[in-house]
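User: Second chain of the day. Same drill as before.
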Amino acid sequence: MPRPAAGRLSMVFILATLAIDALGIGLILPVMPDLIRQVNGGTLADAAVWGGILATAFAVMQFLFGPVLGVLSDSVGRRPVLLISLAIIAADYLVMAVAYTIWLLLAARIAGGILAATHATAMACVADISRPGDKASRFALTHAAYGVGFVLGPLLGGVLGAFGPRAPFYAAALLALTNLALGWIALPETVTAAMRRPFAWTRANPFAAISHIGRLPGVGRLLVVLAIYEFALYVYPAIWAFFTPVRFGWDTPMVGLSLALFGVGFTIVQAGLVRPFLRHLGENGTILFGLCYEVLILTLLGFITSGRLAMVLTPLSALGSLAVPALQGVMSSRVSDDSQGELQGVITSTISLATILAPLVMTQVFHLSTRDGAFIHLPGLAFLLAAALMVACVLLYVASAREGTADPH
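Assistant: Same format as last time:
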């Protein structure tokens, strides 16, 4: 375990890293539809399909390389992996800013997915410096920091979008470079000599790594729950920027405002509500509450036609995110200290595996339900599909809990 001072410094940098990372992502979300249409032409429904392809390409690379970087960080340390990742992210944003063909955008997403390890490596740092009983609440703090960035990012992205769809990408690149400089100065190494272990390709293989981690008591079932959860909730990044203009007539600043409101709700939940829920409901109860709440919100979004009601529901929908840090805390407590990077790599690959198909499925459902001659004109159909998947997620988790393997407490 690192020295207390080093642990505090690491935690501060991790929180700053995730906030800036989310700020960069939030900057580009409101303008992605406009950028895709600028480089490729077509309708908004056509742009949604390409948005799904770009997201899937990114997810495939994360699935394949997430465990590689996780195991590598267990071997060489978190610091070099994290700093190199930040440099690649900055370059990725710059390429997207100057791209004038859809294929160059696709190439940028592929390269970005290979080395986009900031989140997984940051989570491994948190596990390095946290006691088992503190992990869930500390993971919640990282989500809160991410939420802070996501509050400001879409707002700024909506404003910068007035200067063209490429302006936010330059701003995102600048933020990534700023974070790289901050990390170079402030980030200590959190992997100690006692925790370090040699790199092994057998553990870096995504399928072998998932199989190995999944054999630990209860972890495999939780990974399946996480995969279904992430697949269902990918409906938001996959179609939100396309769904809201069609359903409610929102423009880019309104889309940015809605995403910022979600970020506000998300930050409040992660920073202020996770600890009380864990204290009163325990990890098992917190996970079940979050999953059931997601079913309700997704169903409502599938049917509503009022933009005002949607704006109210947007920050309230963040309450379902209570489930994520509780799931992470349970899984992290089930693996040894020298396997935290491997676990986070496996979690990254599990999420990526779920989101490889999710953007394609969700954008295709949106396209089929909104195009001319659609068999049913229901822009919210993808949200109803997500709600059905979340019901399956709840049932699987309940079955796991009854068998006594889902929650160690």
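The chain has a mean pLDDT of 80.

User: Great, on to the next one.
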